[in-house]
Specification:
Shape: globular
Largest sheet: 8 strands, mixed
Number of helices: 10
């Protein structure tokens, strides 16, 4: 069977945002693909149910955020109108969707009232004049993916489902978080920071406001930084940080006595889901509170106070519960995502769902002919875990594995840093190889993210290089999520300084084992991984090629130009920026370097790549800078397909330009 190629990008379908129908009978979800012809990412809403073929509900090309009405008779979703996302309603008994909102700058996802008569949503508010001077009195005047905010704020609105009459609920100099209805439908609850110096000190509180408008009432103090709030039945649940914004997200119940932390028994980060980060909003499954948390590189589903109910080699990235049924999306080593339906009662077994060995021939249980549209196949006839043996009460509803392609699967192992700290890593290679070969170290971003040994559909060059004889090493060094809060915070104020050994030590082990050739080593990474790619080339000359993506090279200038720069300095970096800056040691660099950067990146501004490019060029180090027009920081995940394909292609080409697979000398052009 052929291996994955870079040309397979348009064949990769990624499901997400699953929403279980109120009667638990079916799951609506979004399927995202890359459309090569339009050079856009296409998103459609699909419906899956046990014993039936998944079917397309909407034709796209940019439909998202499905939300069921309380009675299950209508499905609200977002679709652009004149380029602005608006809420549409799709009648499930037949008929075409109708537009409900006409928000001037677009609407956010629908939040139905308990009685189904109204929908609340967040939306940008203000006068948008792209030619007017931009006046800033605080540091929060821009945001990655949006650009200059131009005084716009996010506020809450309520629209009548029957008439379309819309009223603005909040106003003022603050950004309101996603709303949640009180059980009686009389108030909206949301998280927001209204502090005058919120750009200098991270803060957040829970507020409530009458749906008819008025001044919001603050319900929490300063001891917890509240980021999200949800009414779950009669329970008001809050996510936030206890004291400092660098550390694990925790869950709290909010009642008459204030905030009380939910006991999980876990030294793990609660994952509520965000772009580039897996997880899902907490839910009630019957009377049980379920939530996602990172454990090692994986993101699993737990039931409070800390019982794992969905585990194994999976990264959960969406959850929806009705009664004792749970719909979820998870990536596995064989697929960028599948849709599952679980029966909570049936999963109460000694082995958590998914914590079962995978067969050696997985995922061959559902082969797809090459001309079959993704999703237009019958689901498996019985319960299944991701491409593995059956587990109680779990049914796989989809098969989005790339048809006709065999993937390399990463091998998990624990390395030892020079100071004795265990470092988890994942080795992707052709295990039939017996001679030392070239090795690529790929560092993740964050720095508080984590690699997992699953197929993510974005880093296609991993599979391509493995097919060409490379070993790809991904590591979760100090600062990574999933290994406890002490590990999570172990690199604060010591970027590069604290974790260099976490990267170099595992390479030494693979060299000693005869896996990696010490003369054919390369390094890449994105965001923080781009930073560490620059940093490591200042610490050692052992890398023969480097590809920093979305990099940081000079922390001093980054703290004044990034949309999160000052807060990174205040809470993450500390005062000694020079000691942690690659630019302070650039004179040591001799590694041929390819810089890949989005032109509209406001998180790690393109000036970081420009400075590194100029410094290396001035010193005669082989260097190339590639800028992607209009691309924000997350373009490697959600940017133009042509940009994402080019990013992958250039990494492979640069590595092969400077490092040969067979060990023969290269002659770079």
């Amino acid at each position: 069977m052929p291996r994955l190629s870079l040309s397979d990008l348009p064949r990769i379908a990624v499901p997400g945002d699953p929403r279980l129908r109120p009667d638990g009978s079916a799951v609506a979800y979004v399927v995202t693909t890359a459309d090569r012809e339009s050079d856009e990412n296409r998103s459609e809403i699909w419906l899956a149910a046990p014993g039936a073929e998944p079917r397309r509900l909407t034709g796209g090309p940019h439909d998202s955020s499905p939300r069921w009405s309380p009675d299950g008779h209508s499905l609200a979703f977002l679709r652009p109108v004149d380029g602005k996302p608006q809420i549409h309603l799709l009648p499930m008994d037949g008929g075409e969707p109708r537009v409900l909102t006409g928000a001037p700058l677009g609407a956010g996802a629908a939040v139905w009232s308990p009685d189904g008569a109204r929908i609340a949503y967040g939306a940008p508010h203000g006068d948008l004049d792209p030619h007017a001077p931009v006046v800033a009195d605080r540091l929060e005047y821009k945001a990655d993916g949006t650009g200059l905010l131009r005084g716009l704020t996010t506020h809450l609105f309520v629209v009548d489902v029957a008439t379309g009459e819309t009223g603005q609920v909040t106003s003022g100099d603050f950004h309101a978080g996603e709303p949640s209805w009180s059980p009686d439908g009389g108030k909206l609850f949301f998280a927001a920071s209204m502090d005058a110096d919120r750009d200098l000190t991270v803060s957040g509180a829970v507020h409530s406001v009458d749906v008819s408008g008025g001044k919001p009432e603050r319900l929490t103090g300063a001891d917890v930084i509240c980021t999200n709030v949800w009414w779950l039945g009669e329970r008001l649940l809050v996510a936030g940080y206890a004291g400092t914004p660098v550390g694990h997200v925790r869950l709290f119940d909010l009642g008459a006595g204030g905030l009380v932390e939910v006991e999980t028994g876990l030294d793990r980060n609660v994952m509520v889901g965000a772009p580039g980060y897996p997880g899902a909003t907490p839910q009630l499954a019957g009377d049980d509170l379920i939530f996602c948390a990172r454990d090692g590189g994986f993101t699993h589903l737990y039931r409070a106070p800390g019982e794992k109910i969905i585990g194994g080699d999976q990264v959960v990235s969406g959850v929806s519960a009705v009664g004792g049924r749970i719909a979820y999306v998870a990536a596995t080593p064989y697929s960028a995502g599948e849709v599952y339906l679980a029966d909570l009662a049936a999963t109460q077994a000694a082995t958590p769902v998914g914590d079962l060995p995978l067969p050696s021939d997985a995922p061959g249980d559902l082969p797809l002919p090459s001309d079959t549209p993704v999703g237009d196949v019958p689901p498996p006839s019985g319960p299944a875990v991701p491409s593995g043996p059956a587990a109680p009460g779990v049914t796989r509803l989809s098969d989005y594995a790339v048809p006709g392609v065999e993937l390399f699967t990463p091998r998990s192992r624990t390395f030892t840093a020079p100071d004795g700290t265990p470092i988890e890593g994942f080795v992707l290679r052709d295990e039939t190889l017996t001679e030392p070969g070239p090795l690529l170290l790929d560092a993740h971003g964050g720095p508080h993210n984590a690699w997992a040994p699953v197929f993510d559909g974005a880093h296609l060059y991993h599979q391509v290089l493995a097919a060409r004889g490379w070993t790809v090493l991904t590591l979760n060094p100090r600062g990574s999520d999933g290994y406890g809060e002490a590990f999570y915070t172990a690199a604060l104020g010591a970027w590069g300084v604290a974790d260099t050994g976490d990267f170099l030590g595992p390479i030494d082990e693979l060299v000693a084992e005869g896996v990696a050739d010490p003369e054919r080593l390369a390094v890449t990474g994105y965001s923080y991984g781009g930073y560490i790619s620059c940093w490591l080339t200042t610490q050692t000359g052992r890398f023969k090629a480097a590809v920093p993506g979305g990099c940081v090279s000079d922390l001093a200038s980054m703290t004044g130009t990034s949309d999160a720069g000052y807060l990174l300095k205040a809470y993450e970096l500390g005062d000694d920026l020079a000691a942690q800056s690659p630019m302070s040691h650039v004179a040591r660099v001799s590694t041929p370097t390819l810089l890949l950067h989005g032109d509209s990146d406001d998180r790690c501004p393109v000036g970081q790549a420009e400075q590194w490019f100029a410094a290396l060029r001035e010193r005669g180090v082989p260097v190339r800078l590639v800028r992607y027009p209009g691309a924000s920081h997350l373009f490697i995940l959600n940017g133009r397909p042509s940009h994402r394909a080019d990013y992958n292609e250039r990494i492979v080409e640069w590595l092969e330009q400077w490092i040969s697979v067979d060990g023969t000398p290269v002659s770079p052009s």
